[in-house]
Amino acid sequence: MFRLGLFLFAGQVASLLILWCIYPHLTKRVVAVIGASLLFGRTASILTGLEVGLASYSITLVLLVCNSTWLLIFFPLVVASYYQVVEKRGIGRIVVSTKRIAEAQKARISKYGPWGLAFFIWLPFPWTGALIGSVIGFLFGMPTKRIIAVAIPSMLIGVVSWVIGFNYLIVFTGTVGKTASFAFLVVLFLFPVLKNKTS
Questions:
Q1: What does the pLDDT read at residue 182?
Q2: Comparing C-alpha atoms, which of 148, 157, 153, 156 is closest to residue 4?
Q3: What are phi and psi of 99, to 5 degrees?
Q4: Residue 166 has what pLDDT?
Q5: How remote is the C-alpha of 193 from its chain's centroid?
Q6: pLDDT for 65
Q7: Are 140 and 45 spatial neighbours (Cβ–Cβ below 8 Å)?
Q8: Which domain holds residue 129?
Q9: Per-10-residue mean pLDDT for the chain, 199 residues long?
Q10: Mapped to the 3 state alphabet, what secondary structure does 108-164 carry?
Q11: Distance, CA of 196 to CA of 199 (rounded, Å)
Q12: What is each CA distance from 190 to 20, 184, 194, 198, in whole angstroms?
């Protein structure tokens, strides 16, 4: 799995270098989506892609390849280092951070099993993607093949559905105005919090 991730990473780097030679402007947009994904998560990367004018299918392809690559590289590292910290500084920090976030989220989805894990990975919020979801599956004691069988389709469905959803949201924003759209988003994201407090 780790070697496949490294192979995908090398393929991405080679593809970006070739794309840079042919279409440098397009390469900058793709790199912006990848950077937003790494730094801020799926929502930011989708919105970045739409903002810079990438087609929905391009955003979907970039995010699927990138997220699959990071999953295949870092999930084996997290599993291998679960009881000991990786010595290398950069990787060690990423692994420890990923484990800490996964352990904090484990209680929220443990009662739903694989379906809860799939839903968790599908969500567009920061720290709810395939890597954190896979680590949570590992903490549940799920076999690695089952974790990957849940994580990759959930990520695929999540990326496709949220690219389409955010695309419609941008059209909706243009129709009703930014203030009404912002109010709608605030209500949408606060509804689960308010519902929990009242119950």
A1: 62
A2: 148
A3: -60, -45
A4: 84
A5: 22
A6: 93
A7: no
A8: 2-198
A9: 89 94 95 90 86 91 93 86 58 66 69 82 80 83 88 93 86 67 62 54
A10: HHHHHHHHHHHHHHHCCCCCCCHHHHHHHHHHHCCCHHHHHHHHHHHHHHHHHHHHH
A11: 5
A12: 42, 10, 6, 12
The first and second tokens of residue 106, run together, are: 């484990």
Cβ pair 51, 35 in contact under 8 A: no
Total structural domains within the chain: 1
User: Of 152, 129, 118, which Cα lies nearest the Cα of 40?
Assistant: 129
* pLDDT confidence of residue 81: 75
Tokens standing for residue 169: 């949201």
In 123-144, which positions are buried (b, 16+ CB within 10 angstroms) versus exposed (e)?
A: bbeebbbbbbbbbbbbbbebee
